[in-house]
Amino acid sequence: MTRNVYVFVPGVLSYPGSARNWTDRAVTWIHRRATCEVAEKFEYMALPATRNLLAARRATELAALIDRYPIEDFSLVLAGHSFGCELIRLALQQSKRPANFVHLFAPAVPADPRRHRLKALVVAGKIGFLNLYLSSKDKVLTGHFIGGVAPDAVRAHFADEHHTAVHFRPFGHCGWFNAANFEGSMRAVAGLAETSP
Fold it and tell me: From the centroid of its chain, how far is CA 15?
């Protein structure tokens, strides 16, 4: 029997070991929901100004974690927030197995399609289904990142591709996982609720 495995990747300023992190709460949410599913978090510590210093090494470590779950036994679901989305993108470029579902919340991923190459990852089969979650009140990300670009412009990057969905909400940068919205975001990740654009 194939089981779902969820890997949650936080952004910067997420302190490893804190049970208040959204990733810790997400793992607990999955484990309480169903005994046949597996969840874990990829923890690291980075500051906004130094996030790129060890990004390549962290992406390699994340790719190694992804590859520990054989495709014959596990359906892989990756969910990241902010810079965690960039680590997921970099990891999938080097992992041996694809991700069945990828959820990128407020993605701090380069906005230029020639740089992010997310569509290429989908077309190549490295990502089965891609969900991008953008926030209208995001005051952290600029237009240099997908999370800081208007949703119609992001949708244009994937205009002729049918495995990508762009969702837009009136949240701040971290609003997807605050107390009011956590359940809805988790239900979207778990495929239990439709997240309309």
Answer: 18
In order of 8, 16, 94, the CA distances from 117 in angstroms are 21, 29, 13
According to the model, what pLDDT value does residue 143 have?
A: 87
Tell me the per-residue pLDDT of 30-81, one tens digit each, with 9 for 90 and over.
999 876 899 999 998 776 666 777 788 999 999 999 999 999 999 999 999 9
The HSE-up count of residue 41 (CA atoms within 13 Å, CB side) is 24
pLDDT of residue 50: 67
pTM for this structure? 0.94
| Per-residue pLDDT at 142 exceeds 70 | yes
Q: Which two tokens stand for residue 105?
A: 């919340």
- Residues in Cβ contact with 4 at an 8 Å cutoff, skipping those fewer than 6 apart: 36, 37, 38, 74, 75, 77
Amino acid at position 15, single letter: Y
Short-list 107, 118, 104, 111, CA closest to 144: 111
Sheet arrangement for strand 3-9:
38-41, 3-9, 74-81, 99-105, 127-135, 164-169
Q: Does residue 120 sit in helix, strand or coil?
A: helix
Q: Do 38 and 74 meet the contact criterion of CB atoms below 8 Å apart?
A: yes
Would the pLDDT of 172 be above 90? yes
Q: What's the angle, vertex CA 56, arms to CA 55 and CA 61, rounded to 5?
A: 95
